Amino acid sequence: MPQIGFTISGTYHYFNGQDYMTYDAASKSCVANITANPALTKNMVFGLTWLTGYYSIFDTPNDKVGFAGDTTWNPKGF
Predict the structure, then answer these.
(1) Strand intervals (E) in 1-78
(2) How far apart are CA 78 and CA 75, in angstroms?
(3) Threshold 0.90, pTM exceeds
(4) Could you tell me which of 74, 54, 59, 71 has the C-alpha nearest to residue 8?
(5) Over its length of 78 residues, how does the chain's per-residue pLDDT go in tens digits?
(6) Angle at the Cα of 34 (from 6 to 12), degrees rounded to 5?
(7) Intra-chain end-to-end CA distance of the chain, in Å
(8) Cα pseudo-dihedral 56, 7, 78, 49, rounded to 10
């Protein structure tokens, strides 16, 4: 699977295929760990895929979310 990436506030973030795809042995198929909300076509749900590689800080009182790369995380690569 190809590497995919996107930019948030000027910072590029990426995922390798092994980071956003999972093999389901029961159905013998690959499952995407990133999904889209059909009602909101411009929104994506990254879930655990995102949380595995980044520290996420939720500042609820100020309606902000911050992200920091996990320097100990090593993407699986190709």
Answers:
(1) 4-8, 11-15, 21-24, 29-32, 35-37, 40-45, 54-59, 64-69
(2) 9
(3) no
(4) 54
(5) 788 887 877 878 777 787 788 888 999 998 887 777 777 666 666 777 777 777 788 899 999 888 777 655 555 543
(6) 15
(7) 8
(8) 30
